[in-house]
Amino acid sequence: MNNIKIAYHKTKIGELILGSYDKKLCLLDFRYRKMRLTVDNRIKKYLKVDFVEQEDNIILETKKQIDEYLQGKRKKFSISILLIGSDFQKQVWKELLKVNYGETANYLDIAKRINNPKAVRAVASANGANAIALIVPCHRIIESNGGLGGYGGGLSVKKRLLNLEIANSKLTDKEKYEFIGQKQRCDWVKLGNKLEVEYHDTQWGVPVFDDRLLFEMLVLEGAQAGLSWTTILKKRQSYKKAFDNFDVQKVAKYDEKKIATLLQDVGIVRNKLKVNSAVKNAKVFIEIQKEFDSFSNYIWGFVNAKPIQNNFKNILEIPAQTELSNTISKDLKKRGMSFVGPTIIYAFMQAVGIVNDHQTDCFCRTDKN
Asked: Which homologous superfamily is 211-368 in?
């Protein structure tokens, strides 16, 4: 009886597990993903065989093509695959195979393509159950609102894969020069996204001591929760207009009528909790200003007014939160703020330069140091 031959492969996006059966690839996944046992048991149960650690030609060729893909040298895989799942799951996965390199689709798009537009949640679930990552490109499926959605390898890896594909497909050499100027940037920057490039090059990580701008970034980082940063950058000017250029004194006085108006403004994220949070946080912001003479004094006091210089080589090394962001988050929550969890606060710290998380090979890091 044939077993499923498996092998492991360490890459710059994490360690992968590969499996082949009957001269076809049946498994290509992140070794340490949360659904590891669920996915493995599904495959074993369907094929009625077990895993045996052994390489074969399918696995060796897959490793080779993965490395080429991650180096930007391959856009299509030529590996025979075996999809193992329910009929619905396989229907979804076959549609994923039609999403081309450098492109994205959302869960609703896929649901419509299988003539089941009400099955968005089921499509998302099938996307998450995909056992052949990269080749069946579940990383190219995002949320309708621009959010990244989930990914078995983690959102940082999903961002990196999308950036890799955008950089190698949609831009001509002339556009690459225009947008990226032949400079090395942090992994999170989508090279074809002019808003992100400009924000990264001129603002992200630059120390901010101005209270108005600090309040703006606090509101925007809170609004970004669950969404992509590009979505917020696109709405930034609308936010400035809607929130009186982030005049904290004015925002703190917003009443129910003003809040209702904001919730009808298509130029901002119309989430009631987030809008109410901005108003509530403005009031707390003012109280902190009174106590410390400025919010800048308060927030920079956590690092003695000196930015923390990190030395990360790639996006996978950068944490989502730290002990310091947890400390600041707890203090702000204690004072009455919301949408200031440790992950949001760490993103805020990065944005306003409290921590310098420009990667070591980023040209901004070179310029600053």
From this structure: Hypothetical protein; domain 2 (1.10.340.30)
Please say whether the beta carbons of 286 and 248 come within 8 A: yes
For 278-299, what is each residue's pLDDT tens digit?
Answer: 999 999 999 999 999 999 999 9
- Of the residues 93, 216, 221, 254, only one is catalytic, namely 221
pLDDT tens digits, 241-283: 999 999 999 999 999 999 999 999 999 999 999 999 999 999 9
Of 188, 199, 239, 346, catalytic: 199
Alpha-carbon gap, residue 192 to 172, rounded angstroms: 10
Q: Is 221 a catalytic residue?
A: yes
Q: Is 199 a catalytic residue?
A: yes
Give the start-to-end residue ranges of the domains of the chain.
Answer: 4-160, 211-368
pTM score above 0.70: no
Q: Copy the structure tokens of residue 178.
A: 């225009």
Q: Which residue is catalytic, options 69, 93, 204, 229?
A: 229
Residue indicated by tokens 């009631």: 272
CATH number at 4-160: 1.10.10.10
Residue-wise pLDDT for 305-354, tens only, equals 999 999 998 787 899 999 999 999 999 999 999 999 999 999 999 999 99
Q: Is 300 a catalytic residue?
A: no
